[in-house]
Amino acid sequence: MTSAEVFQTLVPAEVLQTLVPAEVLRAYAGRPGCMCGCRGRYVTTPVARAEAEVDGSLDDADVSETEVTRVLRLVQAAWCEAGAEGLELDVGDEFQYFYAARGRRVHAVYLTMAARARRLAAASAAEEVSS
Ligand SMILES: [Zn+2]
Questions:
Q1: Å from CA of 38 to ligand 1 middle
Q2: DSSP assignment of 10-74, as one string?
Q3: pLDDT in tens, 32-63
């Protein structure tokens, strides 16, 4: 593996596996296809609510740290099975999101701006040391 490949594959997995619910802006659970929310549900945490509401107001029912934690654990578990048949994984540019789909189920977590900035800075520093 070249260092660029290491950066693209190992670093995202490492970032994901060390994510905590406080770094999650929104978590999604639903069916594949449209991600607007018509096929599933987005939730946020109390601390991320203000940032999540930039895209529109939220109901109290959309704020659940328990549900964010549940979805985060599912995405993390799916990434541990990378390469499994029928499992689709994706990571957004600059750690915007982590995504896992299997069959009719999609789970994804989107990171807060603060978490993305912190994780990117850490990943860049690690890459400089290794190259
Ligand atoms: Zn839709």
A1: 4
A2: HHHHHHHHT--GGGEEEEEEE-SS--SSTTEEEEB-TTTHHHHGGGS---GGGB-HHHHHHHHHH
A3: 888 888 999 999 999 999 999 987 889 999 99
